[in-house]
């Protein structure tokens, strides 16, 4: 039996806490002129979930370092990622579900972004996580629209 798809509930933002994002590195890629690579740790508390989002045209490679997550991109079926599992988000990907399966244990992702250097210099880290419009007011009391 397939697991029910978790949702980010607008009516109870405390029911599923947000992850925290810790920047690790940011380097210009000398072998790919005009591109930068950025690494972040995304830490999901127990029962944590991120609202639907995109990544500003970046390619994102992710590895689940700890825990188990439900994942859903675009209109593909939701799937479960176990510790050590990886995935790739292509530019323009709509990350609809990213949810910690456990109500008692944390989950941690190492996410590596490859993005145009000019875009990063112009828009800053805000470009990396763009929360869907209908959820921004819950995630950000200020009208910023990003998780970094």
From TrEMBL:
<dbReference type="InterPro" id="IPR014710">
    <property type="entry name" value="RmlC-like_jellyroll"/>
</dbReference>
<dbReference type="Pfam" id="PF07883">
    <property type="entry name" value="Cupin_2"/>
</dbReference>
<protein>
    <recommendedName>
        <fullName>Cupin type-2 domain-containing protein</fullName>
    </recommendedName>
</protein>
<dbReference type="InterPro" id="IPR011051">
    <property type="entry name" value="RmlC_Cupin_sf"/>
</dbReference>
<dbReference type="InterPro" id="IPR013096">
    <property type="entry name" value="Cupin_2"/>
</dbReference>
<feature type="domain" description="Cupin type-2">
    <location>
        <begin position="41"/>
        <end position="112"/>
    </location>
</feature>
């Amino acid at each position: 039996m397939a697991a029910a798809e978790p949702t980010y509930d607008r009516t109870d933002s405390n029911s599923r806490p947000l992850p925290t994002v810790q920047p690790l590195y940011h380097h210009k890629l000398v072998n790919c002129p005009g591109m930068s690579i950025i690494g972040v740790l995304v830490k999901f508390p127990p029962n944590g979930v991120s609202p639907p989002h995109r990544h500003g045209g970046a390619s994102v490679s992710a590895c689940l370092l700890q825990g188990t997550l439900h994942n859903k991109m675009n209109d593909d079926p939701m799937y479960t990622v176990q510790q050590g599992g990886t995935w790739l988000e292509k530019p323009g990907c709509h990350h609809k579900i990213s949810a910690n399966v456990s109500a008692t244990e944390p989950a941690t992702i190492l996410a590596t972004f490859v993005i145009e250097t000019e875009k990063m210099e112009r828009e800053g880290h805000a470009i990396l996580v763009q929360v869907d419009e209908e959820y921004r007011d819950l995630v950000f009391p200020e009208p910023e629209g990003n998780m970094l």
